[in-house]
Amino acid sequence: MFDPIEKLKEFIRHPSVSTDSKFRDGMLGAQKFVADLLGSIGFQVEVVRTEKHPLIFAQRGGDKSWPHVVIYGHYDVQPADPLNLWKTEAFEPTIIGNRIYGRGAADNKGPLMTNIAAIAQLLEEQPNLPLRITFLIEGEEEMGSPSFPKFLEQYADRLREADFVYLSDTALPNENQVVITAGLRGLTLFDLVVTGAKGDMHSGLHGGAFRNPIQALAEIMATLHLPDGRVNVPGFYDAVLPVHDWERAELKKLGVDEKAYAEFLGVDIFYTPPGFSPAEAIRFQPTLEFNGIGGGYQGEGTKTVIPSKAFVKVSCRLVPNQEPDKIKRLVIETIKARAPKGVKLEFIDQHKGEAYVVVPPDRSNTPKDQSPVLARAFRATDKAVTEIWGRPPLYLREGGSVPIIAEIKRATGLDSVMLGLFLPEDNLHAPNESFNLDVMKKGIATARRIFAEIAKG
Amino acid sequence: MFDPIEKLKEFIRHPSVSTDSKFRDGMLGAQKFVADLLGSIGFQVEVVRTEKHPLIFAQRGGDKSWPHVVIYGHYDVQPADPLNLWKTEAFEPTIIGNRIYGRGAADNKGPLMTNIAAIAQLLEEQPNLPLRITFLIEGEEEMGSPSFPKFLEQYADRLREADFVYLSDTALPNENQVVITAGLRGLTLFDLVVTGAKGDMHSGLHGGAFRNPIQALAEIMATLHLPDGRVNVPGFYDAVLPVHDWERAELKKLGVDEKAYAEFLGVDIFYTPPGFSPAEAIRFQPTLEFNGIGGGYQGEGTKTVIPSKAFVKVSCRLVPNQEPDKIKRLVIETIKARAPKGVKLEFIDQHKGEAYVVVPPDRSNTPKDQSPVLARAFRATDKAVTEIWGRPPLYLREGGSVPIIAEIKRATGLDSVMLGLFLPEDNLHAPNESFNLDVMKKGIATARRIFAEIAKG
Looking at per-residue confidence, does A1 or B11 come out higher? Predict the structure, then answer.
């Protein structure tokens, strides 16, 4: 049996940034690493080619009467920049105390290694475990999984044989409380590029005659929110559904400490839509955020130009029942209607993903046709978590997005059991990302028990 | 006698970007080049050390009764980025047709070489020319001349012996029309940095809870202009003086073709304060411009962060009687008053410079105590230009800034005769900067005649 921490170090050393073509070698290295590891514990591994980065599809077959779980994960990571803010090398895993630092440590290499290690240990102990297992490890999650729909089309029949999907790519609120993610926000993203003059112009010789694209961009952006925190795009909230009572009650059990949350963020006041606490807003409300902006001279000192272009990267997080394409269209139409004269607008389409909800068994709104194996998986998870972590999990919607969860549901009918393993302080998508090794240890024990329990039937 | 074009090539090859410390060698090379060249034509050269980049102070003495001209120029250049937009190497001078391409070709290496060549030719022809000449070539113009005030303090007594300053660091409207710059805009610059959360945050996990600094920055920026094109900062226009009638009349003679100007800029409509044509706005009105903006993820694809910081580089062009420090204070106070809650503001001071006006002889508002040598210099210039270019020069205020002109006036009482030599299509401060070699040739002949005429007394 391999050492999960040593293997995780090896995994992190492959700089698998999917959105940046400079990291081709890191992507190939991480892909080969995952394929070899799953092969070494007895899985039949297929490397599924896509337009960009291959998927690893690895199976352990068995009797058709055995339950069948699909375990999802991704081997790609976010870009690591700004590198100057890292205290350790981004792609050289470094253990400090009970944490391992490195890009991808928590998103998703650590949690994925947790589940692979649990399966490896379980199969070593019970080589004849009556459980069919399919690992589905993609390499395009951080770029919005552009190849996933096509893969799903091709593999839908084989996936439909499974009973549910299991994954760890969501968050724990703290080291002592497991959360089963009962919903995810969707998202839709695009870049807006504003062009003024045909080239950069001297701000002395020409300043005052025509519109500066940075000014036009700021004026457009400033119209997109109301002072009360809501998004100011007509129709933006039309499809948003009311929140179920048990969801609000479950969130209350979480006992969010707002002072501690503000301290964690480093802000002195929150900024949420009216009627929503910060914890509610990030789970139950959609957003429109600016993820990056650029234009003109950004270096040391000054350069007195009026730039030709300026751009902003826009993303909307969406809640169930909001359609990504429709929201994108509304936002773009609003921008076009509000843009000042004298500039040209260009929209660059980025990725998107639908929101998702799954309801655990025995809730007021549990679907009547819920799969018995899914219900059993939820109950096994509840039991294993209660035993190992000392308290039952909470069933909460999360603010993040795993767009492929909604796509799997649509293409195959499979729901997902999402057991979060990363913590707020793990710095996902930010410098100094890390993963808690105590969480990893408990995570391995929990997953072993869940899969052993499901196998019992 | 040296070949002015070959010498200009050599000059451009020194990448003398003063605002970026990576170009130290280029700065030293350009400085040595200028010192050696002036030494070779008989000047006594002093290299005046400053906190950043030295000034070249080179003199040709003579009898105290001779007129004394100070010829100003600068050997530093703007940064060349974005380099990918250059069609030739930025620091490898390339002649295409009648133009020489390269960073600094027009600002200020070409025009400066024009004046040095004129003096060299004149002194070769008339070694005993009764004219005292001081070259004053600085290396910090593009960073706002931070060392110039201290230099002026130290050298004021020697400069006060001169009669006027002559320079070519302003624009020609076209190849056939010389403009004597009768005024320059001042400027004041600062960076605004907005901070939200203490680090970059995942837009899924935390989006909707707190204020995004890019959004806050855009909301602040969007308040700083009115839809009609005016700057929306209380008190901004209070000190602005009315424009003299002869100035408006002189500008009318320029016969600005607005359609051609719009085509040159590549815009379909202008955006000027009410009551000012584009040509008037850039000369007679102050501005508030955004020269650069940055924050969050600017790379390929997407990165769903809410960044910790965003910044904008702000510059105001000022007209005579507006005080740079006062305007900066008004803008900063306005920004502070309008900033939304939940973000921190930081202001980084950059350079500044006062606006300047000089009135040629025989105008309604010519000062009664105008120096006779200055009046003679204006008349000599008018005559030389009329003879060589076929029409008299126009006396116009310009939109650009040469802050040291106002500082020289304040410290020494000297006014400046500014004979522009670069054209709108020379792409100053932008990619593909070039200088027209026909203009250079006529410029050398003009300057020779002007200085010969002044020497006659």
Answer: B11
Q: Does A340 touch chain B (CB under 8 A)?
A: yes
- Does residue A457 register a pLDDT over 80? no
B128 touches A: beta carbon within 8 Å: no
Average pLDDT over residues A10-23: 97
Can you tell me whether residue B301 is helix, strand or coil? coil
pTM beyond 0.90: no
In one-letter notation, the amino acid at residue B211 is: R
pLDDT tops 90 at residue A401:
no
Rounded to whole angstroms, the Cα distance separating A97 from A94 reads 10
Contact list in B for residue A292 (CB cut-off 8 A) is: 214, 295-299, 303, 305, 307
Q: Give, in degrees to the nearest 5, the angle at Cα A187 between A182 and A188.
A: 165
Contact B141, B222 (CB under 8 A): no
In angstroms, rounded to a whole number, what is the distance separating the alpha carbons of residues B7 and B110? 10
* ipTM for the whole complex: 0.81
A182: alpha, beta or left, given left = phi > 0 and alpha = psi -120 to 50? alpha
The whole-angstrom separation of Cα A372 and Cα A358 is 14
Residue B211: which of A171, A208, A271 has the nearest Cβ? A271
Cβ within 8 Å, pair A219-B222: yes
Q: C-alpha distances in angstroms, A110 versus A10, A302, A401, A419?
A: 11, 44, 18, 13
- Where does residue B62 rank: exposed (0-12), middle (13-18), buried (19+ CB within 10 A)? middle
B293/A contact by beta carbon, under 8 A: yes
Long-range contacts of B155-160 (CB under 8 A, 24+ apart): B155/B48, B155/B57, B156/B411, B156/B412, B158/B134, B159/B70, B159/B134, B159/B408, B159/B411, B159/B412, B159/B414, B160/B412, B160/B413, B160/B414
Tell me if A292 and B296 make a contact (CB, 8 A cut-off).
yes
Q: Which of A225-239, B170-184, B400-414 has the highest mean pLDDT?
A: A225-239
- Where does the pLDDT of residue B332 fall: very low under 50, low under 70, confident under 90, or very high at 90 and above? very high
pLDDT in tens, A153-173: 999 999 999 999 999 998 898
Strands B344-353 and B305-306, sheet pairing: unpaired
Q: How near does any CA of chain B get to the CA of A31, in Å?
A: 21
Upstream peptide bond of A108 is cis (omega within 30 degrees of 0): yes
Contacts of A406 (CB under 8 A, 6+ apart): A184, A186, A353, A354, A355, A356
DSSP line for B14-43:
S--BTT-GGGHHHHHHHHHHHHHHHHHTT-
CA-CA distance, A422 to A430, in Å (whole number)? Answer: 14
| A contact residues 187-246, partner B, Cβ 8 Å cutoff | 187, 189, 196-212, 214-215, 217-219, 221-225, 227
Whether residue B82 has a cis bond before it, omega within 30° of 0: yes
